[in-house]
Amino acid sequence: MKKNYLFFIAAVLTILLCSYSTYSQKNVVLPSNGGLLESFTSEWGAGYEASNLTNGITNEDGWASTANPAVPQEFIYSFSGGQEAILVNAVINGGLAEGQYYSKDVEVWTSADGTNYTIAASGVLAQSDNSEITLDLGNTVAEKVKLVITSGYRTDYWELGEFIVNGMVWTIGDSDNDGFS
């Protein structure tokens, strides 16, 4: 019990010390940082894949749903090595949407155990090219994060440019010994 209590105190102190520092924050869902798209509801296909949501490019059409998308459209991500991450904020970019297929209402959900999810933030994208919103995730510690699109400005297709989750992944034996990758 005492060991768990000390670990908890150390974790809280680490969060407090690192929460306003940007030196160790990065996009934890970006594949080159170890982020992994585990599942998604739909994708149009060639040129509009779900993986485009985390390709690092905002000024493009990105992902597109299948025709007449089911509600909601969901994308579940895990972090480098299956580790937990401290999630600072999410940046959602609407992309170009071919000038008409803009997503509208978006939510970010987090899971501490990889199974049960809680809504962390929500927002509304504008009906325009490269509309972008930043949602505060409050330094939530999570094992997975889920992007949810609940509506679009049209009903026939929805598109989205980029999903960025800034945070820190807890790693053991990292190169600079700060506890985060």
How are the SSEs ordered, and which strands pair?
Layout: H1 2-18, E1 26-27, E2 36-40, E3 63-64, E4 73-78, E5 85-93, E6 105-111, E7 118-124, E8 132-142, E9 144-149, E10 159-160, E11 162-169
Record keyword descriptors for this entry:
mainly beta; 181 residues; single chain
Query: What is the strand arrangement across the widest sheet?
Result: 2-4-9-6-7
Helix percent reads under 10%
Q: Estimate the strand proportion.
A: 35-45%
Radius of gyration: 17 Å
Shape: globular
Uncertain runs are 19-23
- Please trace the helix and strand order, writing H or E for each element: HEEEEEEEEEEE
> Whole-Å distance between the termini?
28 Å
E-strand count:
11
Give the mean pLDDT. Answer: 89
Number of helices: 1
Q: Structural class from helices and strands? A: mainly beta
The major sheet is characterized as: 5 strands, antiparallel
What would you note in describing this structure?
With 181 residues, this protein is mainly beta. The protein is 9% helix and 36% strand. The protein has one helix at residues 2-18; strands at 26-27, 36-40, 63-64, 73-78, 85-93, 105-111, 118-124, 132-142, 144-149, 159-160, 162-169. The strands form 3 sheets. The chain has a 5-stranded antiparallel beta sheet, with no helix packed on it. The longest helix has 17 residues, at 2-18.
What is the gist of this entry?
The chain is mainly β and 181 residues long. The chain is built from one helix and eleven strands.
